[in-house]
Each structure stands twice: as C-alpha cells, then as structure tokens.
Amino acid sequence: MPDPKIGHDRETRRLWPALALPGTFWLIALFLVPIYAVMAVAFSDRINLFGEPIPAWNPVDWQFGTFSTVLQESVSGIYQEVWIRTAIYSFWALVICIVVGYPVAYYTARLAGRRRGLVLALILAPWWINYITRMLAWVNLLQDDGYVNKFLGLFGFAPHSWLNGSSFTVVMALAYGYLPFFIIPLFASLDRIDGRLLEASRDLGVNSVRTFWAVTLPLSRLGLITAIVITALPMAGDYYTNTIVSGSPKTNMVGNQIELFLLNGPQKNLGASIVLLLSIVLVFFMAYYLVLTQRASRDTR
Amino acid sequence: MTATITPPPATTRTAPARKWVPPWRNPWRKPYVLATLTWLYIVWSLLPVVIAVQFSFNNGRSRSTWQGFSMQWYCCNDGSVFEDPSLTLALKNSLILGVATVLVATPLGVMLAMGLSRWRSKASRVANGIAMVPLVTPEIVIGSALYLVMVNLYQFVPLGRPAMLLGHVTFSVSYVLVIVRSRLLSIGREYEEAARDLGASPLQAIRTILVPLLMPSIFASAMITFATSLDDFVVSQFLFGDASNITVPIKLYSAVRAAPTPALNALASLLLVGSFLALLLAVVGLRARKRGAGGSVLEDMADFS
Fold first, then answer.
1. Which of B24, B125, B148 should be substituted to probe chain A, the one whose Cβ sees the most A Cβ atoms within 10 Å?
2. Do B128 and B60 touch, CB atoms closer than 8 A?
C-alpha cells in the first residue's frame, strides 16, 4: 500500500504557496514598491512644470544632487537643528519611558491574584485609546484656564502658557503618548522571568537593589531593548504630537519637515530624501530588533 | 546582606531571636513604592481621557470649565456630533473604512498565515521576513511611501477612500498574520492530515477542519484590525486627499487647535466606544478558545503587541 502522505504532499505542495501568493503579492506591490518609489523620487533631480519631481524609476537614471544637498544640510545646515531636536526630544522621552515604565511593568508582572487582571487591563487600556484623542485630552487640560493651571493655582503658581512652543510640553507629551507601547513588550518579557529566581536571590540574603541588578535586569534585557526600539521608531518620525501640543516651528521635528515637503508643497524630492535619510538611520534599529525577535522565537520553539 | 539570615551568636538555635529589621531592608516586604508608582501611572495615563470624555457632556461651550451635565453635544443641537455635517461625515468615513479594511485584510492575512506556516521553503522564509517588516517600519515611512507611489505610479488609485483602504490593509495584514500564525503553530498539522487520510481534498480539509479551529483567532484579528484602522492617523493623513474623505482622527487633529466645541470631545468619545467595543469582542473571541483561563487572554493581547 502506498504511503498516502506522499500523495497529500504533492497536492498540498501547490496549495500552500497558492494561499500565500495573494498576500505576498500585496506586500510587494504596496510595501516594497512604495519604498522603492521613495528612492525613485529622492534620487531624481528633474522637475516638471509645477516644480514637482519626475521620479527616476530606472536606477541608471538616478541623480544624487537633491539627496546629497539634503544630506549636507542635515549634517551642517538648515535641517541640522531639526535632526538634533528630534534626537534630544526622543532621548528624554525615552528616559521618562524607562524611569516610569520599567517599575510599572515590573510591578504588574509580579502581581498575582485578582488584582493582576485589573491592573493589566488598566495598563493595556491606553493602547486602545486613539493617540490623537489622548493628545486632545491634554490640550483640554493645558489650556490657559484648564485644570492644570487651576491646580497649580491652588499652590499659588501663576498660570503658565503650556501650549505655545514649549519643549517641555512636547517631551512630556511624547512620553505620555508612547509609554503604553513601551510598557507592554517590557511587561511580556518581565512576566516570563521565573519568580523562583527572584525568591532564591532573596533567600540567599541579597537585598532588592542587588537582586534587581544581578537577576531581574539581565533577564529582562531583551524586553527592555525591544521596548526601547518599538518606542523609538515611531517617536523619531512623529510630527503630530508637537503639532497638537505646541504648533510652533520652534519645536519642529524631522517628521514635521517631511510632512511639510510632501503634503504642503511641490518639493517632494526633498521630502522623499529626508524620509530616506530617516529610514537609513532607523534601519539599524529595525534590523537589530528583527534579528533579536527571530532569535528569541527560534529559542522558544 | 541583611541581618535576617545571620542570627546573632549569643542566641541559641532553638529560639532564633530575629533581630529587628527596618522595613526598607526587608526583601519580603510588600512593594508599596512600586504599587504607588503603578497606580499613579494608571491615574496619569487615564484621567486626562476620562476628563475629556466628561467634557463631551458639558452643558456649555467650554472645554475647560464644567457647566453641568447635558447630552447637547451628541444629539439634536446645532453643532452636535450628529448635526454638524463634517463630524458626521468623519464618523461615517471611519466606519466604512474600518469595515472595508477588515473585509479585505482578514482573508488576505489568514491565507498568508496558512500558506507561510505550512509551506516550508526558502521562498516562504523570504516572504515571512517581508511580512514582518511593516510591523517595525515607522508609520511616517509607510505613509509617505504609499503617498509617493499612489501619486507617481499607481495613478489609477485615486487619493481618498481607495488609497486609504489599500494603505490600511497593508499595515493590517501583518497583524492578522502574526495572530493567526501563532494559533496555527500551536494546533499543529495533525488534524488536517487526519482529515486528508480520511479522504478529504486539501480545500475540504482547510474549510472543515482548519478554519473552524482558527475561528477564534480569525475573529480576534478581525476586531483588532477594525480597531487599528479606526485609530490610524498617519497613513490616513497622507492618503485622504480632500475634505470629503476625512476620518475621525484626521478631524480631531485638524480641529483641536482651532477653538473647538465639546462636540469634538463627543466625537473622540464615540471613537473610543467604537474601538473598545471591537476590543471587547476580540477578548470574548479569544476567551472562547481557552475557557477557564481568565486573565491569560489579556496576557495574550500583551504578547501580540
């Protein structure tokens, strides 16, 4: 009697690729080709009557005039300030994320019993509240006659104008906006740490601080890196947060520059060049993250 | 080293006298500091939104001074959500776009998940890698890339609802893939092989065995897709074209600095209700697959992120 599996294999060998085909085709046409389109526009110096770039689809026709100008202006020139500001804002917002997010994720991961579900649900909740809505909520609170100024007034502080180009407001808004995305992957990783290891450490007489440095932190290193990368990537391209809470060119980030060139003017090759430059900066983080998660999923399998 | 484990030499072994330990030195104390910090964070993260929702019921035009309860910004008053045509339009557009995205992205993602997890070859590994990249690509890159390709190459796709649909499906497919594939890997291939041994054709095996087994995760991923589409701002903003295609997040964004009325808060609250309903259904769907294991559904959701 022939092994039925061989017959199955022959039929399914064509079935599985056929099932994967539409989705793969979709991702090629609407993810890879668009990324290529960014390059085609960025590497084009020719413009049409409206001053819009004519994309160079053939790599042979690529010209690097615009891109190298943008690169120079980014390193030392008119765009330099925006890049530095993006780096500084993202850095401080990430510091706040780590300082606030780590203890919260740790506490939630170590909780047991009935309260765990509640705390977890409350921590997951902001993830599902629209980002713009959460910023809108702060705009309400930070109005000149809003609750924040009223609250500070109780302690005798004069009303402060928060929403007119304050870097402090933007950094706090970024931290507030991205903390849920930071906490959740970190929680998932802290949750996997075997509680017995921490108990063992305490049984051996090590105090909490040393337990943290010697056991918890090394075991959650991967989760911490994941959380930082997952938060830093969108933060570096953020433009809506500071438009909403500041609206002043004094706090513009790289994302604002991209939005300006792509959506509000004809100089789309400048915009595409900045997108490309941003992608090059971020691609290291993305690749690092993908390699880490691939390795982690291989280990657990 | 704490004093708890080294008893002073003067005491006998039968009566281990415990030296008094200050609470901050005791590693077994309750984590009051952490608990306080966590609850403070929860209040900080949710209270502003609660206040914003509260102001959608304000009986006056102010978004910072409470003037009593009223439903006037939701219904039946000039400028309320359901009377202001631009707000109603945004709500309608968001819902249509969300439903359309679910209808396209779910089958596409489920098929992709089945294909990629069962088909073992070099090509499938490459396709798998490509499918993961959209999850880590910053939205501004996806948004601007899609915008440039629609304007310059796929000119047959007009900016507006068609372009937004394509964009939303593109980032949703990867979510569906991740959720459904994790379930596929956990059920293994024994059931389909049994069906095949009993004479089912490959398609029959998928339809009668695999799809029912995957149903909870398909449903959950559909709901999560709906919620992400409803909440998406960046891709929509790059692709919406003109004001007739505005969605709720775009409307909120463009109106927030222009002295809006509490009707805007009402619109945001309705969006909130929409995505929470979808989320609730997703949790119910996932719970159907593991009855009894209550809290772990939330942990699954945490793992998906």
1. B148
2. no
